[in-house]
Amino acid sequence: MHTDADERTAPAGADRLAAWRDATAHALAAAVQVRARHENDFAGTLDVRHLGYVRVLSPAAEPVRLSRTPRLVARDRADGILVALQEDGTAALTQDGRSASLLPGDLAVIDLRRPFSLEQRHRFRQRLFRLPGHVLNVPSARLASVTGRALPTDGGAAAPSAAFLARLADRAARIAPPVGDVLAGVVADLVVGLVDAYAEEPADRPGTARDHLLPAVYRYIDRHLPDPDLTPETVARAHRISVRYLHRLFEDEESTVGGHIRRRRVEESGKDLTRPAPGRDRPTIATVALRWGFPSPAHFSRAFRAAYGVSPREWRGVGSGFAMLRP
Fold first, then answer.
1. Residues 79, 133: contact at Cβ < 8 Å?
2. Fold of the domain spanning 5-198
3. What is the pLDDT of residues 167-180, one digit of tens each?
4. I need a surface site. Which of 29, 56, 144, 280 has the fewest CB within 10 A?
């Protein structure tokens, strides 16, 4: 089974470190600085595999410091995100005002569009998954809240992600290009999932973003009640927050996100059922159900009865006598 591959090993002599640096920069599609403690004794290898738009780098070398300085970032506008999986050795990662130690098995997210440093303290082996930043469609501030951190793989979303990435790197050389194209999308989704799981959310204090965000969420829901695809996921995506944080916003509210959507749909449909329609026939119950985003009349009837204790037909039959009730 054939796949594009590019294996580079630094030559012997004084240029070994420079050759390894150039090979790394080429694979990352980003200018980098590389420093070693003992440059004349440096030895390292770099294997590169291509899976669609994802590049899988497998560096193994003596202790080095890989970095992109502010000046280098300003001169070289690289559009790349790295997911680093530390296999052997320990490393010190610094980015976006945070520093972390990477132990074997740890994951980390690195944004090549901003300055960073990654210093390997011992001889090391690592997996680096490089993908274009624009394919993630993640707000830069949200991504920045994940960088410069170690994501331990002893639990949480990082554990299955690390296991998948390790197996993918081991088998990359045997993956056919069409399959690699599909797997690139899987890797992108995985990175988005890591950001969603570990991003630091806005502070939940009065006077902060929450006070502006929650009213905006309510307005958005009211505007989109007729949309059958209105869900907590679509609400969160529209406001560029995670579903987890959206649910946190509703912790002190009267209902959950889904419960609020359902209640507002029932309220508006109840108004339609009792609203006079002089000179023309009133809409059918099925029409009202579809108008307010219910997937079917049966689903509408169940939600309506759960809220009001009567069926839509009974509500309409009694007329405005139920109008004073609320779900």
1. yes
2. Jelly Rolls (2.60.120)
3. 999 999 999 999 99
4. 280
